[in-house]
Design brief:
Elements lengths: L1 H7 L19 H14 L4 H8 L6 H9 L8 H8 L2 H13 L1 H11 L3 H12 L9 E2 H10 L4 H17 L8 E2 L12 H7 L15 H14 L13 H5 L7 H14 L3
Antiparallel strand pairs: 1-2
Helix pairs in contact: 2-3, 5-14, 6-8, 7-12, 8-12, 8-14, 9-10, 10-11, 11-12
């Protein structure tokens, strides 16, 4: 949901905006062939593009979900937060703060983002990796959305970024699965954010935002740090840190929920 909200808001992607962008609408197979050519021109190997795009089909469920998403934040803050932050999730977050204390200390020192914010985001996005992080092939999802003309430039960029994740060796194609707008991993990064902010914090040579807790939390911290989040400063509505979290999610209600959850984790 997080990264989908950025997509709806017109998030600027790493690989988007090419003057030679494939034309949306029309024959889907022709569109996919154009995207394959564009990906190879951007440095993605023919073996990756062929494996990823050969036989890919449109997904009607993705388009239906896309049309419904505009109503996500029609609740009041009180209504919304009551459905997202309960005693079980707070207690679970506090337990993980203890379990990962050493890791979170290293991340705080390197990126200057407080652990309570990171664990709050982790809890909201995937129930700390235990919840649904998506079961849909990312390439099929993004090809469907890119072919649709509503935000084709955005999702063409995301599709190219997804192919670059495979090209870099961060995730194999079989593991490139995600949610309804192509969000990947335990804190739901769009592929362009994966490429731009992903951090190999466990030192295994890959950025793995599906399985590696160190990579997940450090990459989340890197995104916030890169957009101006400052350690030791308030993060409530109207603050500079609250504004820095726009890169995470532009919806005010969602950022307020992050702050509320972080406060509860900190015992406030």
């Amino acid at each position: 949901m997080l990264r989908y909200a950025l997509a709806v808001a017109g998030f600027v992607c790493l690989a988007g905006g090419s003057a030679e962008a494939a034309r949306c609408g029309g024959d889907f197979n022709s569109f996919v062939a154009s995207m394959a050519s564009e990906a190879q021109a951007a440095g993605v190997s023919a073996s990756v593009t062929n494996a990823a795009l050969s036989g890919v089909q449109q997904d009607g469920a993705v388009l239906a979900f896309d049309r419904r998403q505009r109503h996500t934040f029609n609740k009041s803050f009180e209504q919304y937060v009551s459905t997202r932050v309960g005693p079980g999730r707070i207690n679970g977050g506090k337990a993980l703060l203890q379990r990962h204390a050493a890791l979170l200390s290293r991340i705080e020192q390197q990126f200057g983002v407080p652990r309570h914010i990171l664990v709050a985001i982790w809890g909201l996005e995937s129930d700390f990796g235990k919840g649904d992080i998506g079961k849909m092939p990312v390439v099929r999802t993004l090809a469907t959305l890119a072919h649709d003309c509503r935000r084709t430039e955005l999702f063409q960029g995301e599709l190219l970024a997804a192919l670059k994740i495979v090209q870099r060796g961060d995730l194999p194609l079989r593991d490139l699965i995600g949610a309804f707008a192509g969000e990947i991993g335990q804190t739901q990064f769009l592929p362009s954010s994966y490429i731009k902010y992903g951090v190999d914090f466990d030192g295994d040579g890959h950025v793995d935002l599906r399985h590696s807790v160190p990579d997940v939390l450090a990459s989340t911290a890197n995104l916030l740090h890169s957009n101006g989040f400052k350690m030791g400063q308030p993060y409530g509505e109207g603050t500079a840190n609250f504004e820095a979290m726009r890169e995470w999610n532009r919806a005010v209600i969602y950022r307020k929920t992050i702050g509320y959850f972080a406060g509860r984790l900190a015992g406030q």
